[in-house]
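Q: Two folds, back to back.
A: First:
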Amino acid sequence: MASRFLRSGFSRTVFSIWSWFVLGVLVLLWLPMVAVVRLVTAPFDPGRYHAGLLFRKLAVVHQKLTPLWRFRVVGEVPPDPRRPYVVVANHESFVDILLISHLPMEMKWLSKVEIFKIPVVGWLMSLAGDIKLTRGDRKSIVLALRECRDRLDKKVSVMVFPEGTRSASGELGPFKDGAFAIAIEAGVPILPLVVHGARTALVKHDWRLGVSEAEVHILEPISTEGLTRADVADLRDRTRALIAAELDRMRATIPG
C-alpha cells in the first residue's frame, strides 16, 4: 500500500520537490563545513581524507530525508580505512555515487570535468580532493592517472567506474584498463563493488525521483601483489567477471 502511494504521480512529484530542495540546502550547508575541515586538517592531512569523508556524509543525510529511497550496504568493509584500494563498481545511474558514498570509508572519485563546473558541488569536490578527467583528452587522462597515484601514495583510496560512463541499457559494459593499471603500478588491491537498484532512483529524462531500494555489495579485495603491466587485461577481466556474477545474483534475488 505504501509502495503504491509512493509510486503515484502526485506523490512522486511532491516528494521529488522536497528531496531536490533538501539536497540544495545540504549542499549550501556543507560547503563552509568542508572548507573549515580542509583548512584545519591541511597541515597533517595532505590526502584530504577528513574533508572528503565529511563531504560524502552529505549523501547519507540526504537519503535519510528522501522518502522515495532506501539504501543498504552489504558485505565486509575493509577494517583499515587508510589502507588504500582502487575501488571499482558497475555504473547504473548518477545515484550510484550517492549510494556508494554510504560506505564508511573515504575514497577520491575520478569524475568528468563537467561535474566540477557545477557551482558549489564542484567546489565541494575540489575541496575534497576528487580528480578531474576530460574525456578524450590524452593530457587530461595522463594527469588524472598521476593524481590517482598521488592519492594512493597518501593512503587514500580511489574510486573509478571502469565502464567509463553509465550503462544506457542497464547491462554491464566492457571495462577499461585504467583502474587496473593504476592498481598494479601502485601495488594496491582492487576492491570490487556491485550496485543494484539505483537505476530506478533517477529515471533518465525525468526530473522526478523514483522509488528505489538500492544496495551496494562489497566483494573480497583482489590482490595485485606480484602483478606487472602484462597482467592488466587479466586483472580487468577477472574483476569484471566477479562483478557480473554478483550482479546477476542480485537481480535474481532483490526486487527491482
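A: Second:
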Amino acid sequence: MLDMTVSSSRPLQGVRVLELGQLLAGPFAGTLLAYFGAEVIKVEPPGGGDPIRQWRVVRDGSSLWWRSLGRNKKCITLDLRNPSGRELVRRLAQRSDVLIENFRPGTMEKWGLGPAELKAVNAGLVYTRISGYGQTGPYAKRPGYASVCEGIGGLRYVNGFPGQKPVRPNLSLGDTLAGLHAALGIMLALWQRRNDPLQQGQTVDVALFEAVFNLLEAVVPEYDGAGIVREPAGSTVTGIVPTNTYLCRDGKYVIIGGNGDSIFKRLMEAAERSDLAADPRLAHNAGRVQHEREIDAALSDWTATLDSSEVLARLDTAEVPAGPIYSVADMLRDPHFQARELFETVEIDGQPLKIPAILPKLGSTPGATSWPGPAVGSHNREVFEELLGLEATEIDRLRDDGVI
C-alpha cells in the first residue's frame, strides 16, 4: 500500500535550473519546475528585467502576472551582451543540471553559450531550447510568437466558425503548450541521465508550432488516409454528436456533452424528447452525426425554456455531462475550486494576492508556492556570493560596470 503521508520535500529538490528565457514559454517551463522544488535561477537583463514584469495589469511597479510566473525563482541580473556577463553564465551553467533558453536560434551560439560550448564544461547539462520553429529546418531563424505559431501549427485553422476568420482564444496557448512540452522534455532527459552510466545530458528542442501540432488528434491520419481536411466547426466537434453550447432562458450558455450512446438516451429523456431517445436512427454516433441539426435544434429549443441552473440540475440528476462557462469571477466563487485548492494566496507589500496553484497534484510530495515573483536582481548577492564565490567588491564592480 502506498504511503500517502504528505512530505515536506518536493520531487525536484536538488535539481538546479538556469533560466535564460524571457516572456512566457521558457519562464513557464521554469515555473513548473520551481513549483515542484527545483532551484530555478532566473537571469534577467539589468534594469527592467523580463518584459513580462510590465505586461497587462501593473500594481506597485510590477505586473500581477509576474507574481505568479516568477514564483519560487531566484532572480539575478546579467547582461548577456557583455563578455563578463557571459562568463558568469558559463560558471552558473557549470553548476546547473538544466538550462532553459528561448532566444532566436543562433543567438546563444553567437554569444559562445551554445550547447557545444556549455557541455564542454558540464557534460551532464540538459540544454533546453524553445523557439518558434525549432533549431533546424528552413524556418528555424524566423521570429516565432505564439500567435503566428498557433496558425502554422494548425490550431487556428480548426478554431472558429465556418466562413468566418479564425478565432484566437484570449490566451497565449502556443507559449504555454511549449512550456509544458519543455518541462516534459526536461524530465525525460533527467531520467535518461540518471540511467546513463556516463551521466550525459542532452539537448531538448521545443518549437511552439510543434507543441500546437502535437494536439491535432486525428487531423493528420484522416487527411492522409481519407483526404479529409478538418474544418472549423464553431462550438461543436466534427464527427461527435451531440457536444455543443446551448443558450438558456436567463441568457447564459451551458455546455452539454451527450455523445455516448446511453448518455444520449438519458439526455433526450431529460429534455423531454423520448421520441428521439428511442429513435433507432440516433442509437449510435454515426447516425447522430447525420442528424446533428435535428438534435441540436431539439436541445436548443429545450434549454431556451429554462434557466441555466435548471438545465444543469436536470442533467446532473440524469448523469449527463454538462456545465456552465465560467469567468474567473465564477471560479473564485465556486466551492469545488476551493475544495480542490486551486488558489494560493501570497503577500505583496502587505496585501494578499491570489494566484493559481500549479498542477498536477501529487499525493505525498506536492508542489507549493514558497514566494511570489520577486524584484529584479533580488538574489544577486546570494547567487554570486554563495554559489559562485565572488567577493563583495567584485559584485560591486560588476554592478558599477552594468554587467549585473
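Q: And?
A: The radius of gyration is 25 Å.
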